[in-house]
């Protein structure tokens, strides 16, 4: 049931991929559309919490700057009560700004940084006041100290005034520029009181040029409904008189009525600016409501389409999953029941009859897959039959070739033995000895082919053979037998029927040790009695193997796999595993303390006999005389 649900879930998951994309797209469209509306509404919130308190604070700081300049111009005997009262109003405006700005300070990273910059400048206000009170600051330094704080406030206006509605943003930016022009006017107002120095006139001239440029540039881009009030101010007689006074101050004069004239204009500009800001705030409300309505309609329509698509997809997915589940059941039946039965019968040599695979389906593709499974089943059976016939054929070839080679080698060894008895020259005898050793190795390779074919080599002894003779016989069947050292062993004996296979098994391990170790090193063969039989140790002084290779080879030795004709490089390992499995012998590889590899052959106790109490006549050696093997 669980695996059936897995198929259904995969089909549903496949169908839900486009639906999930639709949901994501719906969410993005809704978020973007609604986000525009919410941003317009946030514009009102930012006006209430940031811009309006900032305007109030800026007005109070402008008045404090003017009062500070008036105090510096009046001298030490001046009345400080007006400045103290104005500072109190500025402090209240500052606290109100900090309280309100804290509500919207974290709206965005940019706004937070700008608010923090304003906080930093406001913290310098006490230092500016201290310099004024101690007489360390002149009028120019005082004006510039307040200017820095007010510049930070107007940077905040420009940052908060950004809105994702181009007409409103453009008008809001222009209104902020006009507000900054009013700030420049109040700076002129403070510098123009009384007699001015050269440095003050230089700064005053720059302020006049910047203010006039801002006003002329901004009025041309302002909406007609907002421009009317601004135009009425700059065309008034008061404004024209103020321009003439500016020219007089630039020329070094001190016009009368400067403070009253600029104060009147500053108030007019402030009222016009606040009125324009309120109008822009009101304009954002219907735009926000229209955007929200559009977002709701679009989101509702998309959501309805998604629900219809989900219902249709689930219905089609459920139908398709049922058909696939039926196909899956039929395929599992073929894989788990039919094919194993067919293979088992083929191994027994029985004939097989494979029924066709049929899957009921209304889907053309699934029906085609069912037919394909039926074809695959038939092809797999034919392949299994062919593989079984191939294995039998290869086995027969191996067996026939090996038997023929065995017969020829047997005849050759008989002739060599006769020649050894007749030879008198030591050199000829040594050559015959080497030929005899070569024939012995060829006999072992022929037996390897017989083992691969699944048959028994047939070489054995009727009586038990001492373990030492078994080890010597194995050493005599390898090419580098001069490097093999057979240590003395206990007198236990090996049962005659298994002597040939054990000699072959140990010889394969010894030859492997000589091949994979340096030529100047020795291969040690030791034997000892174990708790459950007898153990041979074949130790080389080579480079050894990695842990992964040891694990792989031990796994193959413990569970012999099917012989692969393409894996001829591991032929000896396969022969060892086959011989060990035939007699329940355990073969293990492990690291040697000398850096090489040690092969351990554990012969079960059923194949091992104790030595006789009384000495017997020596039995025939299992192989030719081992006069070249060291260690005795």
Task: Walk me through this protein's architecture.
The protein is built from 16 helices and eight strands. With 632 residues, the chain is of the alpha+beta class. The longest helix is centred in the middle third of the chain and has 91 residues, at 258-348. The radius of gyration is 53 Å and the shape is elongated.
Brief sketch in words of this structure:
The chain has helices at about 1-75, 80-105, 110-125, 125-135, 140-160, 165-190, 200-220, 225-235, 235-250, 260-350, 365-420, 425-450, 465-475, 495-515, 545-560, 570-580; strands at about 465, 485, 495, 525-530, 535-540, 585-590, 595-605, 610. By secondary structure, the protein is α+β, with helices and mostly antiparallel strands.
Average pLDDT number? 76
| Total DSSP helices | 16
What string, H for helix and E for strand, traces the elements in order? HHHHHHHHHHHHEHEEHEEHHEEE
The strand line-up of the biggest sheet is: 2-4-5-7-6
Q: Could you name the ranges where pLDDT drops below 50 across 5 or more consecutive residues?
A: 619-632
Helix content: over 70%
- Fraction in beta strands: 5-15%
Dominant shape: elongated
């Amino acid at each position: 049931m669980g695996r059936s649900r897995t198929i259904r879930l995969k089909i549903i998951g496949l169908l839900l991929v486009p639906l999930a994309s639709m949901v994501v797209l719906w969410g993005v469209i809704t978020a973007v559309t609604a986000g525009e509306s919410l941003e317009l509404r946030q514009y009102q919130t930012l006006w209430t919490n940031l811009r309006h308190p900032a305007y109030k604070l800026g007005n109070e700081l402008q008045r404090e700057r003017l009062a500070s300049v008036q105090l510096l111009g009046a001298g030490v005997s001046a009345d400080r009560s007006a400045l103290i009262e104005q500072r109190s109003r500025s402090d209240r405006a500052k606290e109100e700004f900090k309280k309100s700005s804290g509500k919207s300070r974290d709206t965005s990273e940019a706004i937070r940084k700008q608010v923090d910059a304003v906080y930093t400048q406001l913290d310098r206000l006490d230092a500016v006041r201290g310099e004024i009170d101690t007489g360390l600051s002149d009028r120019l330094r005082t004006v510039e100290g307040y200017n820095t704080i007010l510049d930070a406030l107007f940077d905040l206006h420009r940052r908060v005034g950004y809105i994702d509605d181009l007409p409103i943003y453009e008008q809001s930016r222009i209104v902020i520029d006009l507000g900054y022009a009013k700030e420049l006017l109040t700076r002129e107002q403070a510098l123009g009181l009384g007699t001015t120095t050269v440095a003050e006139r230089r700064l005053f001239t720059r302020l006049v040029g910047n203010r006039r440029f801002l006003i002329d540039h901004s009025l041309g881009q302002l909406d007609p409904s907002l421009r009317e009030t601004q135009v009425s101010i700059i065309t008034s007689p008061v404004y024209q008189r103020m321009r003439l006074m500016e020219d007089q101050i630039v020329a070094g004069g001190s016009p009368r009525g400067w403070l009253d004239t600029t104060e009147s204009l500053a108030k007019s500009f402030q009222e016009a600016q606040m009125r324009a800001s309120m109008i822009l705030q009101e304009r954002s409300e219907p735009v926000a409501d229209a955007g929200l309505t559009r977002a709701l309609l679009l989101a509702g329509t998309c959501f309805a389409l998604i629900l219809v698509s989900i219902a249709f997809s689930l219905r089609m997915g459920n139908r398709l999953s049922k058909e696939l589940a039926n196909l899956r059941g039929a395929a599992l039946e073929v894989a788990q029941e039919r094919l194993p039965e067919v293979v088992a019968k083929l191994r027994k040599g029985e004939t097989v009859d494979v029924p066709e695979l049929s899957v009921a389906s209304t889907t053309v593709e699934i029906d085609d897959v069912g037919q394909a499974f039926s074809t695959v089943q038939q092809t797999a059976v034919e392949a299994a039959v062919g593989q079984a016939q191939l294995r039998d054929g290869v086995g027969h070839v191996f067996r026939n070739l090996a038997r023929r080679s065995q017969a020829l080698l047997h005849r050759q060894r008989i002739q060599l033995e006769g020649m050894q008895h007749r030879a008198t020259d030591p050199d000829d005898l040594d050559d015959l000895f080497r030929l005899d050793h070569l024939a012995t190795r060829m006999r072992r390779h022929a037996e390897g082919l017989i083992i691969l074919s699944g048959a028994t080599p047939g070489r054995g002894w009727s009586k038990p053979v001492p373990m030492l003779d078994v080890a010597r016989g194995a050493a005599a069947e390898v090419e580098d037998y001069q490097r093999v050292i057979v240590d003395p062993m206990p007198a236990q004996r090996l049962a005659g029927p298994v002597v040939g296979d054990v000699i072959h098994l140990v010889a394969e391990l010894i030859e492997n040790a000589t091949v994979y170790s340096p030529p100047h090193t020795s291969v040690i063969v030791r034997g000892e009695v174990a708790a459950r039989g007898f153990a041979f140790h074949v130790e080389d002084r080579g480079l050894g193997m990695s842990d992964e290779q040891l694990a792989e080879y031990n796994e193959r030795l413990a569970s012999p796999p099917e012989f692969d004709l393409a894996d001829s490089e591991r032929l000896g390992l396969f022969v060892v595993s086959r011989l060990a499995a035939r007699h329940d012998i355990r073969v293990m590889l492990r690291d040697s303390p000398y850096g090489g590899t040690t092969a351990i052959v554990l012969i079960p106790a059923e194949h091992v006999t104790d030595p006789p109490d009384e000495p017997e006549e020596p039995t025939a050696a299992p192989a030719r005389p081992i006069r070249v093997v060291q260690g005795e």
